[in-house]
Amino acid sequence: MARAYYSTVFPQNADRVWAALRDFGNYRLWVDEVDESEVEDGRSGQEVGAVRRVRIGNTLIRQVLLAHSDIERSYSYAFCGAPRFPVRDYVATIRVNPITDGGTAFVEWWAFFDCAAEEREHWTRFFAEGFATWLGSLRWRLAA
């Protein structure tokens, strides 16, 4: 099983960063390249089992919320059906932790998945770079 991982520090406190991230359906509000993001069937973006439909250009991605915790400031999700990438059993988690020395936030985003052994390095790097880009977008939005 492969693991993609990215972490960073935000100058805002953990509560402020989590407030921006906590609604699984609000992806469009903090990821620049997303054209549309909504939770299907009128469900809440904090409701386990909610399906997020994301459109980036002509690409449609559906993801299901597996776990959500305001106490741990985290959620986990997986792709619905076959992902557009040649990976299997993809499960990602994003978590916001307070850094008590300075009142900032430590944000981690990781995914476990299976893929062909010869493609592991590529997909590990691909997802980690995506996490970095999307958290960079969040950083820009929070600073504005």
Question: Would you spell out the secondary-structure blueprint of this structure?
Answer:
Elements: E1 2-10, H1 14-21, H2 27-30, E2 36-39, E3 51-56, E4 59-69, E5 74-79, E6 88-99, E7 104-114, H3 120-143
Antiparallel strand pairs: 1-7, 2-3, 3-4, 4-5, 5-6, 6-7
Structural overview:
The chain has one domain (2-143): START domain (Alpha-D-Glucose-1,6-Bisphosphate, Chain A, domain 4). A hairpin with a 4-residue loop joins strand 4 (59-69) and strand 5. The relative contact order is 0.25. The model has no long low-confidence stretch (mean pLDDT 93). The longest helix has 24 residues, at 120-143. The protein has 144 residues and is an alpha+beta fold. The protein contains three helices and seven strands, in the order E-H-H-E-E-E-E-E-E-H. Strands 1-7-6-5-4-3-2 form a seven-stranded antiparallel β-sheet. The radius of gyration is 15 Å and the shape is globular.
Characteristic key phrases:
144 residues, 25% helix, alpha+beta, 7-stranded antiparallel sheet, Alpha-D-Glucose-1,6-Bisphosphate, Chain A, domain 4
